[in-house]
Amino acid sequence: MEAEFAELSSGFRNAAGSSGTWNLELVAARGYLDRLMGNVRVVRYLENHFPQRFAEFQSIFDPPRAARIRRTSAIKRKTPG
After folding, report:
1. Is 76:40 a contact under the CB 8 Å cutoff?
2. Helix (H, G, I), strand (E, B), or coil: what is residue 79?
3. Looking at residue 45, what is its pLDDT?
4. What per-residue confidence (pLDDT) applies to 68?
5. Left, alpha or beta for 67 (phi > 0: left; psi -120 to 50: alpha)?
6. Most buried residue among 8, 18, 22, 43 by CB atoms closer than 10 A?
7. Range of the domain at 36
8. 47: how many CB neighbours lie within 10 A of its CB?
9. Which of 77, 75, 78, 39 is CA-nearest to residue 57?
10. pLDDT at residue 66, rounded to an integer
11. CB 42: neighbour CB atoms within 10 A?
12. pTM of whole model > 0.70?
């Protein structure tokens, strides 16, 4: 029983140690995605060429942000130039 507890404790410590790394990577990835989705040209390209992936990216953001991105993209498409 003590050996099982030691093994379980070791596994927990390893998981806890790696969760910090995962969280940091997730924060960095979301920050990068946030910058990409703030670029109208990138949004337009994703929307036209990868609509399913674009929808997945949008779902990461809160609904008001996703709606704002869609509106901005629609306005830019209607503008000649």
Report:
1. yes
2. coil
3. 94
4. 64
5. alpha
6. 43
7. 2-78
8. 18
9. 39
10. 55
11. 15
12. no
Amino acid at 28: A
Structure tokens at 19: 């969760």
Token pair recorded at residue 4: 């099982």
CB atoms within 10 A of CB 5: 9
DSSP sequence for 24-59: HHHHHHHHHHHHHHT-HHHHHHHHHH-HHHHHHHHH
Cβ atoms 28, 35 nearer than 8 A: no
Q: What is the pLDDT of residues 12-62, one digit of tens each?
A: 777 767 777 778 888 888 888 888 888 999 999 999 999 998 888 888 776
Task: Read off the pLDDT of each residue in 54-78 and give the average, rounded to a whole number.
Answer: 69
Cβ proximity of 66 and 58 under 8 Å: yes
Q: How many domains does the chain have?
A: 1
